[in-house]
Amino acid sequence: MPASPRPQLLLFDVNETLLDLSKLHQAVNQEFDSKFAFKQWFALLLQYSLVDTTTANYHDFGQLGDAALDMLAQALGQEARPAARKKELLRLITELPPHPDVVPGLTALREAGFRLVTLTNSPPATLQKQMQYAGLTNYFEQLRTIDSLKRYKPHPDTYLTTCRALGVAPADTMLVAAHGWDTAGAQLAGLQAAFVARPGQQTYPLAPTPTLTGPTLEDIARQLG
User: Fold this and answer.
1) Key word ATP-binding present in the record (predicted)?
2) In terms of CB atoms within 10 Å, which of 49, 89, 157, 177 comes out highest?
3) Is 138 a domain residue?
């Protein structure tokens, strides 16, 4: 492990980091008849979460996901989907399995004495359903989201407010995420970060190098010891 203090608290991103989005990925691609539709939709979702953060015009992630489906249809020259169909697609985000390495990784980290807490852009009701469906609820001390703050990650307040609420200094806290924008945000706010290098994910070259990098959560757990 690099020469950083052993973190007391681990904050976990949820979507893609813990949960496998393949089912949603396939459904969106099939709906819009494009192998790039999901990536385009997810990019719009993240882009407009930042628009809402910078303009102080908050909508929850479900509302943004719905709007992003409309924008995706428009970008692809297709008709907007009916509200019921969009709701059906978006419901899939609450029915996702964990990646195979997640349960062994969380088990190892919990047994090593780390405090485990989620920090996600999803709203609380969605997060509760996600974790219950995936069978991960009991691994975590708290299931936290950005909803009460009404600023999306990677705004520094999302990380710092969580650290204060849990009574742990940023330097003694590590974000675990599969997104380079998320690890960048955490580190620039003074936290440590572990990047889980899921297929297709990259770190941000203009941000600090993550404290730890590994292909799976099990590997991150081994590095943390």
Assistant:
1) no
2) 177
3) yes
For tokens 């520094």, name the residue: 156
What is the pLDDT confidence band of residue 1, given thresholds at 50, 70 and 90?
very low
Can you tell me the distance from the alpha carbon of 17 to that of 21, in angstroms, rounded to the nearest whole number? 9
Please state the domain count of the chain: 2
- For 26-54, how does the pLDDT look when each residue is reduced to its tens digit (9 = 90+)? 999 999 999 999 999 999 999 999 999 99
> Which of 48, 75, 94 marks a domain boundary?
94
Tens digit of pLDDT for each residue in 79-119? 999 999 999 999 999 999 999 999 999 999 999 999 999 99
Spatial distance between the Cα atoms of 18 and 195, rounded to a whole number of angstroms: 12
Residues 218 and 134 in one domain: yes
Rounded CA separation 76/115 (Å):
44
107 and 171 inside one domain: yes
Decide if 127 contacts 118 (C-beta within 8 A): yes
Q: Domain range spanning residue 170?
A: 9-20+96-224
Which residue, chain included where needed, has tokens 């949603």? 24
Q: Quick check: is 3 in a domain?
A: no
Separation CA 202–CA 136 (nearest Å) = 25
Is there a single domain that holds both residue 117 and residue 183?
yes
Question: Which CATH number do you get for residue 151?
Answer: 3.40.50.1000
Alpha helix positions (H), the chain:
22-32, 37-55, 61-75, 83-91, 102-111, 124-134, 156-166, 180-188, 217-224
